[in-house]
Amino acid sequence: MPKALAASYVQCGLARYAHPNFHESRLNKALIDAVHNEVHVKIHDLYALYQTAEAIDVTKEQELLLTHDRIVFQFPLYWFSTPVF
Fold it and tell me: Domain range for residue 37?
């Protein structure tokens, strides 16, 4: 791990979610709402940050993954497939 990342390393979880209609979702919204107030969980909404898959800041996203102990990827399943990003 690079020294800059090691210095800012914290032991907490990262809940990354990607949902195009989050406010209409029952299950995905309930899961995020359940951990929303947890001190050691950072919620990371990809749809809120990026308008398109091409706009994703890969370096920033990789650094974010390196600074968390636990990572949860949450997304809806459409016909047993993941969303675009």
Answer: 3-74
Helix boundaries (H) for 11-56: 27-35, 46-49
Q: Which two tokens stand for residue 33?
A: 């709402």
* Neighbour-count burial of 15, counting CB atoms closer than 10 A to its CB (0-12 exposed, 13-18 middle, 19+ buried): buried
Residue 9: which of 66, 61, 60 has the closest Cα?
Answer: 66
Residue-level length of the chain: 85
Residue 14 lies in a domain: yes
Burial status of residue 27 (CB atoms within 10 A of its CB: 0-12, 13-18, 19 or more): exposed
Q: Domain containing 44 — which CATH number?
A: 3.40.50.360
What's the pTM value of the predicted model, to 2 decimals? 0.65
pLDDT of 60: 92
Asked if 47 contacts 19 with a C-beta cutoff of 8 angstroms, the reply is yes
